[in-house]
Amino acid sequence: MAETSPIRYSFGGDEHLFAEVSESMSLEAFFKGMAVTRAVERLALEGVLDVCLANASFQIRFDPDRIAPHVLLDAVQTAEAQAVAERTLHTRIIEIPVLYNDPWTHETLMRFRDRHQDPSGTDLEYAARINGLANVDAF
């Protein structure tokens, strides 16, 4: 994954640490935030009450009587460095069979034609026509 800008941390009141992973939402920012929040959760820090991930940020609610804010920040930044360095995305391919122009799909789509952009034709006929093709076979 591409390198992103450093996370910007700020404290919200006495018991929240807010982390802005990115100014805009992206998959990179989301996965970076996820890696860091999972690493923080694995630390099981005394005094951390909640870890809440969002698209381009995360927030940690903590008890300042059980963990000092600067101690929490140091631990989170250390977790960030390790999580970002170790980050990999494990994926797999799942094949989902999709049928087009078969009798079962045709029967189902014809039940709802009255609410369609072109009630006189099928989805495939409509797609072929708006793409300038002669018929479904050309599509």
From TrEMBL:
Task: List, alphabetically, the Pfam families matched.
Answer: CT_C_D
Family matches, as InterPro entries: CT_C_D, PxpB
One GO molecular-function annotation for this sequence?
A: transferase activity
Keywords recorded for this protein, A-Z: Transferase
Q: Which Gene3D superfamilies match?
A: 3.30.1360.40
* Carboxyltransferase domain location: 7-139
Asked if Transferase is a keyword of the record, the answer is yes
The organism's superkingdom is given as Bacteria
Where are the coiled-coil regions?
A: none
This chain belongs to the protein called Carboxyltransferase domain-containing protein
